[in-house]
């Protein structure tokens, strides 16, 4: 990931390859205004810039600037005070994303508050991401270094930059895991990488293999993973600082590849099912960041890892499995596998007696139909939903609450078992959440269905194509709020 540092060098004297400057929209008869040397405002007007969000233009540096070139990026507002933190992330991230192949960039946001400058820095780091691990030629590496122009003795700004780096590193960890091809990231390998990610942090790791899962009664995880020659795993991470007064449990769906099993998915788009482990990557990354930041909150994290393939030993539609808590479930659709592995992990998470349980999953296509590809769904208890919505607003990630209509519960009554793993097609995201609710009891709980925004088919702001890392910042914000 790009390095980031604070410098007291002036806009005119900074010698980076590129100088990034924000552009405000015009107000009344006034044209766009560059937050920088006045000469650039005239240039912006001459080349037709309007200062709208996602508008990025690179130009040669005019006389008087030591940088080789300038990137102007629109903020979408006529006054800096009116620019939300997320819009700053998005604007600056769009600029650094466009700078792949460059060595260094300097970022100046004259007049920004500490909060705004931190958001801009975070956006710069998020935009400066590229996954090139398997490129052998013509790969444009991400921007390598970002200098933030500010006062040299601004310790509060330096602290904000340090936090921005940890947060962006966590988001990019999720992106790396999700973008890794499924032949290289399978349950055992995911478990190994999870342990490696926390090796230098005060986090205890426990990994259950397929034999321990079978002996422990994890019927959901075992059943989903039995069609693959690469068996399932359940990873438990325990971050327990001495000064913690709150305990949050996290559960992540970790289907390292989802073919649908015997209920096979259509071929078109199946390659994107390498991303069906985004929930597990998200909660792992949030735990890593919480420990790196030293947040005084106890976090237990469960990664429910399996590969859903239609091998000769795969579970069949009509099978009945016994879950970790003894509940029996009819598997009517093997492509409704995420809720099965999550349910087993939720039973263990609740047994830890946390103050809050959050699960994160690319769970249903129905959530995408309901909310599109940029907004995630949140369900759960009333307080659990409110906790996530407050955190998502602070983090700048869009979530929308969905209900649990009481009449949908009857759709999950089993014919020969306690439950069935699917209900009616209408309201599919809701019935999936209602299924999970059966395994959390009275615990305060939030269910995050991130199926839409977890993986992008087109770039926007600091997010390129592929894994976005969306929801890592929200989950981390919940942990920070609980720590506070």
From TrEMBL:
<dbReference type="InterPro" id="IPR043472">
    <property type="entry name" value="Macro_dom-like"/>
</dbReference>
<keyword id="KW-0464">Manganese</keyword>
<dbReference type="Pfam" id="PF00883">
    <property type="entry name" value="Peptidase_M17"/>
</dbReference>
<keyword id="KW-0645">Protease</keyword>
<keyword id="KW-0479">Metal-binding</keyword>
<comment type="similarity">
    <text>Belongs to the peptidase M17 family.</text>
</comment>
<feature type="active site">
    <location>
        <position position="265"/>
    </location>
</feature>
<feature type="domain" description="Cytosol aminopeptidase">
    <location>
        <begin position="333"/>
        <end position="340"/>
    </location>
</feature>
<dbReference type="InterPro" id="IPR023042">
    <property type="entry name" value="Peptidase_M17_leu_NH2_pept"/>
</dbReference>
<comment type="function">
    <text>Presumably involved in the processing and regular turnover of intracellular proteins. Catalyzes the removal of unsubstituted N-terminal amino acids from various peptides.</text>
</comment>
<feature type="binding site">
    <location>
        <position position="276"/>
    </location>
    <ligand>
        <name>Mn(2+) 2</name>
    </ligand>
</feature>
<dbReference type="InterPro" id="IPR000819">
    <property type="entry name" value="Peptidase_M17_C"/>
</dbReference>
<feature type="active site">
    <location>
        <position position="339"/>
    </location>
</feature>
<dbReference type="Pfam" id="PF02789">
    <property type="entry name" value="Peptidase_M17_N"/>
</dbReference>
<feature type="binding site">
    <location>
        <position position="337"/>
    </location>
    <ligand>
        <name>Mn(2+) 2</name>
    </ligand>
</feature>
<dbReference type="InterPro" id="IPR008283">
    <property type="entry name" value="Peptidase_M17_N"/>
</dbReference>
<dbReference type="InterPro" id="IPR011356">
    <property type="entry name" value="Leucine_aapep/pepB"/>
</dbReference>
<keyword id="KW-0378">Hydrolase</keyword>
<keyword id="KW-0031">Aminopeptidase</keyword>
<feature type="binding site">
    <location>
        <position position="258"/>
    </location>
    <ligand>
        <name>Mn(2+) 2</name>
    </ligand>
</feature>
<feature type="binding site">
    <location>
        <position position="258"/>
    </location>
    <ligand>
        <name>Mn(2+) 1</name>
    </ligand>
</feature>
<protein>
    <recommendedName>
        <fullName>Probable cytosol aminopeptidase</fullName>
        <ecNumber>3.4.11.1</ecNumber>
        <ecNumber>3.4.11.10</ecNumber>
    </recommendedName>
</protein>
<feature type="binding site">
    <location>
        <position position="335"/>
    </location>
    <ligand>
        <name>Mn(2+) 1</name>
    </ligand>
</feature>
<feature type="binding site">
    <location>
        <position position="337"/>
    </location>
    <ligand>
        <name>Mn(2+) 1</name>
    </ligand>
</feature>
<dbReference type="GO" id="GO:0004177">
    <property type="term" value="F:aminopeptidase activity"/>
</dbReference>
<feature type="binding site">
    <location>
        <position position="253"/>
    </location>
    <ligand>
        <name>Mn(2+) 2</name>
    </ligand>
</feature>
<keyword id="KW-0963">Cytoplasm</keyword>
């Amino acid at each position: 990931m790009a390095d980031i540092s604070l410098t007291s060098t002036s806009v005119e004297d900074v010698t980076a390859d590129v100088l990034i400057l924000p552009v405000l929209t015009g107000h009344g008869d006034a044209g766009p205004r560059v937050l920088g040397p006045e000469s650039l405002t005239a240039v912006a007007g001459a080349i037709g810039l309007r200062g709208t969000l996602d508008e990025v233009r690179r130009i040669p540096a005019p006389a008087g600037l030591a940088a080789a070139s300038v990137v102007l990026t629109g903020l979408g507002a006529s006054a800096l005070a009116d620019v939300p933190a997320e819009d700053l992330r998005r604007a600056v991230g769009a600029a650094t994303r466009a700078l792949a192949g460059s060595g260094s960039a300097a970022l100046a946001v004259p007049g920004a508050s500490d909060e705004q400058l931190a958001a801009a820095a975070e956006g710069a780091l998020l935009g400066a991401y590229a996954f090139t691990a398997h490129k052998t030629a013509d790969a444009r590496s991400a921007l390598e270094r970002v200098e933030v122009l500010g006062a040299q003795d601004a310790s509060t700004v330096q602290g904000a930059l340090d936090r921005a780096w940890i947060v962006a590193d966590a988001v990019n960890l999720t992106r790396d895991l999700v973008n890794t091809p499924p032949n290289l990231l399978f349950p055992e390998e995911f478990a190994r990488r999870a342990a490696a990610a926390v090796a230098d942090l005060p986090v205890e790791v426990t990994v259950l293999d397929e034999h321990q899962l079978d002996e422990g009664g994890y019927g959901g995880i075992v059943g989903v993973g039995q069609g693959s020659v690469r068996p399932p795993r359940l990873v438990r991470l325990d971050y327990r600082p001495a000064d913690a007064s709150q305990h949050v449990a996290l559960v992540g769906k970790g289907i390292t590849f989802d073919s649908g099993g015997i209920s096979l998915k259509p071929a078109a788009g199946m390659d994107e099912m390498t991303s069906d482990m985004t929930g597990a990557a998200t909660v792992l990354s949030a735990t890593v960041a919480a420990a790196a930041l030293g947040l005084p909150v106890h976090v237990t994290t469960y990664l429910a890892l399996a590969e859903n393939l239609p091998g000769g030993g795969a579970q069949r539609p009509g099978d009945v499995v016994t879950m970790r808590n003894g509940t029996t479930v009819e598997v009517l659709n093997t492509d409704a596998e995420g809720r099965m592995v999550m349910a087993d992990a939720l039973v263990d998470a609740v047994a830890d007696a946390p103050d809050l349980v959050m699960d994160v999953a690319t769970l249903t296509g129905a959530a995408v139909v309901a909310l599109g590809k940029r907004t995630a769904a949140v369900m759960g208890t009333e307080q659990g939903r409110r906790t996530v919505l407050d955190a998502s607003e602070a983090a700048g990630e869009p979530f929308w609450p969905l209900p649990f209509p009481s009449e949908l519960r009857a759709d999950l009554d089993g014919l020969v078992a306690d439950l069935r793993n699917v209900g009616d097609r209408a309201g599919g995201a809701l019935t999936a959440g209602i299924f999970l609710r059966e395994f959390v009891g009275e615990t305060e709980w939030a269910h995050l269905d991130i199926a839409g925004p977890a993986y992008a088919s087109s770039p926007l702001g600091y997010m390129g194509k592929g894994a976005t890392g969306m929801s890592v910042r929200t989950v981390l914000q919940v942990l920070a709020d609980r720590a506070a």
